[in-house]
Specification:
Elements (H helix, E strand, L loop, with lengths): L1 H34 L6 H8 L3 H7 L3 H24 L5 H15 L3 H15 L1 H4 L3 H18 L8 H21 L3 H19 L2
Helix pairs in contact: 1-2, 1-4, 1-6, 4-5, 4-6, 5-8, 5-9, 5-10, 6-9, 8-9, 9-10
Length: 203
């Protein structure tokens, strides 16, 4: 009988473990966004999540690993939202414009602003911050520019270089908005700059 019930018990343990992991990420996201990485302690996460230290360390070796999991979860959310925003834009240039404007708009989201744009580069290091999310974003950018090139609007040999250049410029604009004292004014300036950049690069 025990052999028959063992798979079910194992499935329940896996489900409970996954639920605990997701709860820790959710709670940590709120704390990291409100207080920042440096001012958030493991003890505060444990108290807010209502789990034991052993349960946390079963999933994450330390605060840095928990923060990285939070970043990865937010990155997945960002990509999903940008895909939805750009999905009905139409031609490749319009799709690129919608995604770019969508990203700088998200720079005003307090959670994305604090965790992704302000803390992640210093906590994870610039190289890690750009990978793997940057690779996914770069691949999507390259695909859009290839489609634009196929329409005769961009020289084929410029596709890869433009992908890096445009992505870097948009990320820097998002950083500027995140750090601005007046985010509304910075966003308005950013929209104008992105529109003008893409208009000149991809006429």
């Amino acid at each position: 009988m025990s052999l028959m019930t063992e798979p079910g018990n194992m499935s329940k343990r896996v489900a409970r473990g996954q639920a605990t992991r997701e709860q820790l990420i959710d709670v940590a996201t709120g704390l990291f966004a409100a207080r920042g990485y440096e001012d958030t302690s493991i003890e505060e996460v444990l108290t807010a999540a209502g789990v034991s230290r052993g349960a946390l360390y079963h999933h994450f070796p330390g605060k840095d690993a928990l923060f990285e999991a939070v970043v990865e979860t937010l990155e997945a959310r960002i990509m999903a939202e940008l895909t939805a925003v750009a999905g009905d834009a139409g031609d490749p240039v319009a799709t690129l414009r919608a995604a770019a404007l969508g990203w700088i708009e998200m720079a005003r989201d307090p959670v994305i602003q604090r965790i992704i744009l302000l803390d992640a580069p210093s906590v994870l290091g610039t190289e890690r911050w750009h990978d793997p999310d940057q690779q996914q974003a770069l691949a999507a950018m390259r695909a859009l520019l290839q489609a634009i090139s196929d329409e005769g609007r961009l020289a084929p040999e410029l596709v890869t270089a433009f992908a890096h250049m445009i992505l870097g410029a948009i990320d820097e604009m998002a950083m500027m908005i995140a750090r601005a004292g007046d985010s509304e004014a910075a966003l308005a300036e950013g929209r104008t700059a992105v529109e003008e950049l893409l208009r000149r690069l991809l006429p």
